[in-house]
Design a protein that fits this description.
The protein has 323 residues and is of the alpha/beta class. The chain has a single domain, classed as 3-Layer(aba) Sandwich (Rossmann fold), CATH 3.40.50.300. The protein has eleven helices and 13 strands. The chain has helices at residues 52-59, 82-92, 110-121, 127-140, 146-149, 159-171, 189-206, 217-223, 241-246, 251-258, 299-303; strands spanning 4-16, 25-32, 35-37, 41-45, 67-72, 75-76, 95-96, 177-181, 209-214, 226-231, 234-240, 309-310, 316-317. An eight-stranded mixed β-sheet has the order 7-8-9-4-10-11-13-12, sandwiched between helices. Strands 1, 2, 3, 5 and 6 form a five-stranded antiparallel β-sheet that branches. Strand 8, helix 7 and strand 9 form a beta-alpha-beta unit. Helix 3 (110-121) packs across helix 4 (127-140), helix 3 runs parallel beside helix 6 (159-171) and helix 4 (127-140) crosses helix 6.
Length: 323
């Protein structure tokens, strides 16, 4: 991996659920250790409800951690003080959302959101410089000619074009890491590959890192340098993309891979049929959260929560029977 750009240590986020006087706690994210290098694409993979979007919101400072720390360029975010420092971080780590239409104001032209972001985060630019940068980022994301796109309203664009505008809004802030939360899930299959290629091109041309959040194992394999697999608030496996998806060690990763037909993949289980649903992680008891669905569960899985440990090949897996 390249030089570490962002990392988390024991990142945890809990939510109170139920009625006003309820003491129940939803464990959305528990003890997550994650790292992203400079100019690296990391895919965070898992089912809906696994905690992926909560991690995105924690990195974007939309939620505050219950405990744990986020480090960016060697500095802890808990020490950010004042509006200026928070704006600087938000510009360095913007988000691209699942629904491209929700991130655009339908009452304004495409240029409005991009110029407004630059005015807020890049105050050193003159009005003329902002207009020049507007055209540059539109063309960088494949919306050419820029003069044709910048004056359109969101409803005049296709879904793929709107998602590219979302990337242009992020790129205009001179980001170092873009958190892309399911950016292709609402697009037609024929358009998805173009957006995935766009992220790869932005990494190569602009040096931007990506945290690519998805439930689609195939797109993670196509795009990412490393894959991190998440289940019920816990990280269960992480490593180089081909290592993890070609030879999955955790039973949950094996089930994910089994859902994507690939003659090259070695499943590792004689019969990888899913036998249950994700658990409700409200006041969870100790033990592996995947045990009810796991075909390889042992008695130890009922009482002891597995920790991420490094295997001989450098991969990290949270499983008592991974080997």
């Amino acid at each position: 991996m390249t030089e570490t750009l962002l990392r988390t240590e024991g990142l945890t986020r809990h939510f109170r659920v139920g009625k006003l006087m309820s003491r129940q706690t939803l464990h959305a994210v528990d003890d997550v250790d994650l790292s992203i290098g400079r100019a690296e694409i990391v895919a965070l993979v898992g089912e809906s409800g696994s905690g992926k979007s909560t991690i995105a919101r924690l990195l974007a400072l939309a939620h505050q951690p219950t405990r744990g720390e986020i480090w960016f360029e060697g500095r802890p975010l808990s020490r950010l003080r004042g509006r200026r420092s928070r704006l600087a971080y938000s510009a360095a780590v913007p988000m691209v959302f699942q629904d491209p239409y929700s991130s655009l104001n339908p009452a304004y032209r495409v240029s409005h959101g991009i110029l407004r972001g630059m005015k807020l985060h890049r105050g050193e630019l003159s009005a003329a410089a902002r207009r020049t940068e507007l055209d540059r980022v539109l063309e960088a994301v494949g919306l050419t000619p820029a003069a044709d796109t910048r004056n359109r309203f969101p409803f005049e664009l296709s879904g793929g074009q709107r998602q590219r505008v979302g990337f242009a809004q992020a790129l205009a802030l001179r980001p170092k890491l873009i958190v892309a939360d399911e950016p292709v899930s609402m697009l037609d299959v024929s358009i998805r590959i173009g957006v995935l290629n766009l992220m790869a091109e932005l990494r190569e041309q602009e040096g931007v890192s990506f945290l690519y959040i998805t439930h689609d194992v195939a797109s993670a394999r196509y795009l990412a340098d490393r894959v991190v697999v998440m289940y019920a608030g816990h990280l269960v496996e992480q490593g180089l993309t081909e290592d993890v998806l070609q030879h999955p060690k955790h039973p949950y990763t094996q089930l994910l891979v089994s859902a994507v037909p690939d003659p090259r993949a070695e499943l590792g289980l004689a019969d990888a049929r899913d036998v249950g649903e994700p658990p409700k992680v409200v006041d969870p008891k100790p033990g592996c959260r995947f045990r009810q669905r796991c075909p390889l569960a042992i008695a130890r899985c009922e009482t002891e929560t597995p920790e991420l440990r490094e295997l001989a090949d450098g991969r990290r897996v949270a499983c008592h029977v991974a080997e």
